[in-house]
Design the sequence.
């Protein structure tokens, strides 16, 4: 059983490809977080139905989106998790359509959900240098600043051309685990009551 003071981490995989580089990178961050005593859950946007924003502004009147799709399932997890791991590969210098639709739907979300969240960006790509990720990272940075979230780290892995490239790179896997662990430890250092020795499996 988990208690109300457990540190929770939510991993979002924005790639349409299951078991690919983005999921491997997000998994590594979650493994590091779990090892540091957090509880973690992972969601694959490619397996969910999240419609694009319709720009109807219905949410401004009712305070909820008119679309009752799988975004409803994600909102409680977003609210209850102190750390979000946002993963997307680079598609034409931007995020995937699945990831963008997910973020666009934040327009109709109570802004209190976002305040104080700690964000880890996980961005694998086939391009040979980090410059290719500049628009994705810039978008996430600007959103964090606007919504009162803190971008803790950006894990960028260039040159990941094969489906298993990230898993085959011990350097990138270890770095991602370290980021997950250090982020959880920083929270526990600020509030030791949040520490919980847990070896929970990564959620599916």
Sequence:
């Amino acid at each position: 059983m988990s208690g109300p003071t457990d540190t929770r981490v939510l991993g979002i995989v924005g790639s349409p490809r299951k078991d690919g580089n983005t999921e491997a990178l997000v998994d590594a961050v979650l493994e590091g977080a779990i090892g540091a005593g957090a509880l973690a859950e992972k969601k694959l946007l490619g397996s969910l139905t999240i419609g694009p924003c319709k720009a109807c502004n219905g949410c401004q009147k009712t305070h909820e989106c008119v679309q009752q799709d799988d975004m409803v399932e994600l909102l409680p997890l977003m609210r209850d998790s102190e750390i979000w791991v946002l993963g997307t590969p680079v598609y034409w210098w931007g995020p995937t359509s699945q990831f963008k639709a997910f973020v666009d739907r934040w327009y109709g979300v109570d802004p209190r959900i976002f305040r104080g969240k700690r964000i880890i960006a996980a961005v694998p790509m086939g391009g040979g240098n980090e410059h290719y990720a500049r628009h994705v990272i810039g978008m996430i940075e600007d959103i964090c600043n606007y919504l009162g979230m803190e971008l803790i780290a950006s894990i960028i892995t260039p040159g990941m051309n094969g489906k298993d490239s990230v898993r085959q790179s011990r350097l990138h896997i270890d770095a991602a685990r370290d980021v997950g662990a250090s982020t959880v430890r920083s929270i526990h250092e600020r509030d030791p009551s949040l520490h919980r020795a847990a070896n929970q499996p990564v959620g599916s």
